[in-house]
Design goal:
Two copies of one chain form a homodimer. In chain A, helix 1 crosses helix 2 and helix 3 packs across helix 4. Helices cover 32% and strands 31% of the residues of chain A. Chain A has four helices and seven strands; from the N terminus they run H-H-E-H-H-E-E-E-E-E-E. Bound molecules: manganese (II) ion (2 copies) and zinc ion (ZN) (2 copies). The site of one zinc ion has 7 residues of chain A, from strand 4 and strand 5. The first copy, chain A, binds a DNA duplex through helix 2 and helix 4.
Chain lengths: 133, 133
DNA sequence: TTATAGTTTAGAATCATTCTAATAATCTAA
DNA sequence: TTAGATTATTAGAATGATTCTAAACTATAA
């Protein structure tokens, strides 16, 4: 069975052609940072037509299932990340591109005290890059 | 002269009633995290009417002048921060509220290598909080 | 004063994302 | 293998935050 189909089956998602295409893409390039717009463009270039609503539905579903991770970077674009490891990002605004920073490339020697009654949910670290000079 | 007016004068911004109201608010509560929507509500409660466009115009202008700092938190809301120190944030999604983390409450013992041809522009660290249990 | 440049505003426009509700595909039990 | 039920896809409308437009207003300096 196609790897993409296995992934979908394991998450109880029907292997529609659209889903297979999306999961396939994610599996092929491992460690992807995707945006709905980027995905649509990718599929358009390959003459695969998937509606924007479906792209969003599925990326969100995959995030719900824990196959992708979802977050936002600075502006109001939603990003999906197939790297499930704990990690951080450089953001290259020139290219509108994220670059992974491995968890062990940043170490904290001191961490702030969490406010009373609360616990840490997730940490977002984004280092915004600009061109030298 | 009113403190707010001095601030505006120093930045070459005409002290209109709307601007004075906004800067006044920022000066009174020092260290504020504001959102256009929050400001509008605040002024509505005090029966001061300032249009949404003006709120945005002025918050953005104040950010341009370096009187506020502008950034985004997770979702697509724009935040303005009157704390100009280098610092980070907790985000309490329950209350839709930011809490400052002083720069010296986090220390890095290891920092990632910046990609070639690039330099660090800014760092965003947001620790998302959720309620205990 | 008055002319000019700067400001405010209502409402339209934009853009990313979600919703709606009609249609289509997949699955399952018999 | 089907029929019926369930789940997915889709076009297009709706939403919400922000910005734009262009007309009316205000501050300022001469
Ligand atoms: Mn939005
Ligand atoms: Mn937006
Ligand atoms: Zn990543
Ligand atoms: Zn702050």
């Amino acid at each position: 069975m196609l790897e993409a189909k296995k992934v979908l089956k394991k998450s109880n998602l029907r292997p529609t052609s659209q889903r297979v295409a999306i999961v396939d893409y994610i599996l092929q390039k491992n460690k992807v940072h995707i945006t709905a717009a980027k995905l649509i463009t990718h599929f358009k270039n390959k003459n695969i037509s998937i509606s924007l609503a479906t792209i969003y539905n599925n990326l969100n579903e995959l995030a719900d299932k824990g196959i992708l991770r979802k977050f936002y970077v600075n502006n109001d674009k939603m990003w999906f990340d197939s790297n499930l490891q704990d990690h951080y990002h450089f953001y290259d605004s020139e290219k509108d591109e994220l670059i992974d920073i491995d968890k062990n490339e940043i170490s904290f020697s001191k961490s702030p005290k969490i406010p009373d009654g609360k616990i840490k949910d997730s940490i977002n670290i984004i280092i915004n890059l600009k061109n030298k000079n």
